[in-house]
Amino acid sequence: MLSSRALQQLSALLGTENVLTSEEDRITHAYDGTPLLHQLPLAVLRPRSAEQISAILRLAHEERFSVVPRGSGSGLSGGSVPVEGSIVLLTNHWTRILEVDERNLTAWVEPGVITAKLQAEVEARGLFYPPDPGSAAISTIGGNVAENAGGLRGLKYGVTKNYVLGIEVVLPSGEAMLLGGKSVKDVAGYNLKDVLIGSEGTLGVFTKILLKLVPKPEASRTMLAFFNSMSDAGETVSAIIAARILPAALEFLDQTTVRCVEEFAHLGLPTSIDALLLIEVDGRPAVVEEDLATIEAICRRHRAIEIRVARDAGEAARLRSARKVAFSALARIKPTTILEDVTVPRSDVAPMLERIQAIARAHGLLFGNFGHAGDGNLHPTCLTDERDKAEIHRAEAAFEEIFNEAIRFGGTITGEHGTGLAKRKFLERLTDPPALGMMRALKQVIDPDGVLNPGKVLTLKPRCEGPLPRDRQQVERFLALGAFT
Amino acid sequence: MLSSRALQQLSALLGTENVLTSEEDRITHAYDGTPLLHQLPLAVLRPRSAEQISAILRLAHEERFSVVPRGSGSGLSGGSVPVEGSIVLLTNHWTRILEVDERNLTAWVEPGVITAKLQAEVEARGLFYPPDPGSAAISTIGGNVAENAGGLRGLKYGVTKNYVLGIEVVLPSGEAMLLGGKSVKDVAGYNLKDVLIGSEGTLGVFTKILLKLVPKPEASRTMLAFFNSMSDAGETVSAIIAARILPAALEFLDQTTVRCVEEFAHLGLPTSIDALLLIEVDGRPAVVEEDLATIEAICRRHRAIEIRVARDAGEAARLRSARKVAFSALARIKPTTILEDVTVPRSDVAPMLERIQAIARAHGLLFGNFGHAGDGNLHPTCLTDERDKAEIHRAEAAFEEIFNEAIRFGGTITGEHGTGLAKRKFLERLTDPPALGMMRALKQVIDPDGVLNPGKVLTLKPRCEGPLPRDRQQVERFLALGAFT
Fold first, then answer.
1. Which of A183, A189, A414 shows the shortest C-beta gap to B188?
2. Which CATH number do you get for residue A86?
3. C-alpha to C-alpha distance for A108 and A100, rounded to whole angstroms
């Protein structure tokens, strides 16, 4: 419970209309996009300025509550799920694009700007913001930066951090600072900006973000290729790269996913195939046509049983939707959908998928697999029911094996969703102990009282040998209950 | 002086042939590419493995000497200049390219690999390592990563950090760790890799580096354009960007630099012009020709008085050399060349250059200016004589004004050379106090005893109120003597 003093001060600071404490408001902010994790926050706050965020964080120290920043809450690793004794701090109502600087190819935005809205806005000016997370239609730029979101265009264009030139951030202490600026080259001092990017709301709250834009590609072509075996699809991906082509998207769906997509969206996909590749090339028209022809030939050479090339933008959107609806289509099958995010070197996509399928079979689980084949970034997705405790335990065991396999392949436990609550245990397995020590030290130095999103990314550790302080104990207890923690 | 125990242990560890203590060896490692800064090291070490580096760092704690890592020593901010009581740790003899993985477009290299050698090696396989610092012919990849080196291709391709997928690093404690890997997407835990990149040898010693490669552009065209005014050249740069073209290089030289280059290299450059642009476009042949034509038209529209387009690779290299020899050509004029590295938003290049020229005039100094117009990254270069104390003081005053102007334009004090010793004072002026505090805390956490390259990037601060420990006092005294500190 927030003390009456805290409530009073928050109301005075933000206005009562921006301090939400009703059951409804708390319940709707008790979870994010991650299955199995939820916790009621003490309150939900809607600050209007960086100064108000500073004041909230200062009060959090005094009143010993924690602060969990949240954009759209579309995260998939529990990054914005409240912890016990926390308030949720919203920035999704800060939705202004403050400046698009066409001379410097930059945009200043507020953290609550929806990714797809920014994309549309800059594309209308002949510019391009490449990062394209699956949740772009609802995710916020602030959330994208907090998670270092990836998406479909990673292979050719990179991820969110490659497009963040500057951030205005409020630290857990309540101090504010600006990092970076419009200079595209800047090596003054240590690169703090790139640590805050992807820090999952544990090191600071972003209040303004300066993004880098690029010229919009003039043309783009989209195709689907169907294969009778995943290894044919995997070899096709390798052959495209070997031909020195970097497509703007190079995505795959496995049979289960294709079937669910077809049932859901009626795109006329052949449901007997083992693998589907969605390939998109963009750039100057002449090059795009050339690449398209090369890729078609490569697909045929690797036993594609059918290829569909979109003739216009409408058809391209239709083909693209085969990939875009994958998650929603899978989510219809069973009450609970556990979507994961392992990454392996792209040359190991096919063998890794084989391992995932074998693991799912061994545990008697239904898995759909899809993801970014060009990035080696796979989304093995378990279709289950959280009321079936035994199956959930088998799913946990399966994912544990999958993470171990990814590590064995020299990959990582998360390519774009973050560590959050869901993968802290595996972070410890993946990471060399000195690096883990440095991560802990970094959090400790920036947020010594653990006020900001505590227990995310890293497990909490007592700072001394004695008993944990009261609120830390509660957090640990909560975390012990969470799945996959 | 190293204690005899330390010397004995180092000799036993590395072999006497790898512990260089002669006057000649110490003198040749007393400076790097930065003018006015030099300090004799206690010894120069040539370790052969990460384990030996660990042992050296452990011994440094016991014996209270500092360790200054060094590649080719081509740095321009004093990053590898020894500090008093330090040994120099060389890695420039680790010159193996360990693996080029054509399926994943990656290369594992040792830190001593020469940048140009790596470029040539991967280009022979149809791949491309884009970062191209001016010193590429002599600089090492380890040094490039330590400084987050930039270069000519920043506008289109980014800088070194955009191509580092993984690093194996020995921490000041002597612990070793691996960060990153072949997964092109990886958001597990905090992004420590990008803090170590550009940390100028103050947070760790790199022992292996995993680089990202891209397909080699099929074609490339190079041109020079001459202008009667710098503002015409500046407008040309803006117009090229506004036409949604990102050239692979977009460089400028001012009149003084053009004259020095012509005198030095006899390229047939008109010496009465006010500005020269070197423009390079690369990519697929059809696009390259299209872009070249567009850029030519833009140059003419902005009053270019002459344009030279290279007809073949030989001629391109000749035109490119106008920019490549700029520093050497300027350095012949006077005994001391102070090359700086301010960056402003690219839309402010022309006004910033006007300010630099006015400042140089006001202080009665001879300046040549050149740099990366497309990045807003300028290299104002003062031609002076370090024996003329009065002129050196005027140069210091002029650079102070120039840094202040860069900050006023929303730019930065260093785009690619690093903070090192030379720009610590200006880092403090540029950086918000909480960020500076975080940088200090980071160094403190990773290197609490200040063993690794102390006093670089950040000024040393006593860790307690009492008198400084002996060796720290010496370092502070040395630093107080350095120019521009």
1. A414
2. 3.30.43.10
3. 7
Q: Where are the alpha helices (DSSP H) in B190-311?
A: 193-196, 230-242, 255-265, 285-301
User: B258 with B201: CB under 8 angstroms?
Assistant: no
ipTM, 2 decimals? 0.93
Residue A184: half-sphere exposure toward Cβ, Cα within 13 Å: 33
What does the alpha-carbon distance between residue A65 and residue A68 come to, in Å, rounded to a whole number? 10
**B311: which residues sit within 8 A by CB, 6+ positions away?**
none
Chain B: residue nearest A446 by CA?
B438
CB within 8 Å: B290 and A283: no
Domain total in chain B: 5
Judge if A439 and A451 occupy the same domain.
yes
Mind listing the pLDDT tens digit for each residue in A321-330?
999 999 999 9
- CA A158 vs. chain centroid, Å, equals 14
Please report where in the chains the tokens 């990582």 appear, as a residue. Answer: A412
pLDDT band, very low/low/confident/very high, at B461 (cuts 50, 70, 90): low
Measure the CA dihedral B436/B439/B441/B444, to 10°: -130
Q: Across the interface, do B445 and A441 touch by the CB < 8 Å criterion?
A: yes
Of A189, A241, A287, the CB nearest to B284: A287
**Per-residue pLDDT reduced to its tens digit, A235-254:** 999 999 999 999 999 999 99
Is A278 in the same domain as A357?
no
What is the residue type of A174? Answer: G
Chain A segment 363-422 residues within 8 A of B by beta carbon are 372, 375-377, 410-419
Nearest chain B residue to A375 by CA distance is B184
Q: What is the DSSP letter of A151?
A: B
Q: Are A182 and A210 in contact (CB under 8 A)?
A: yes
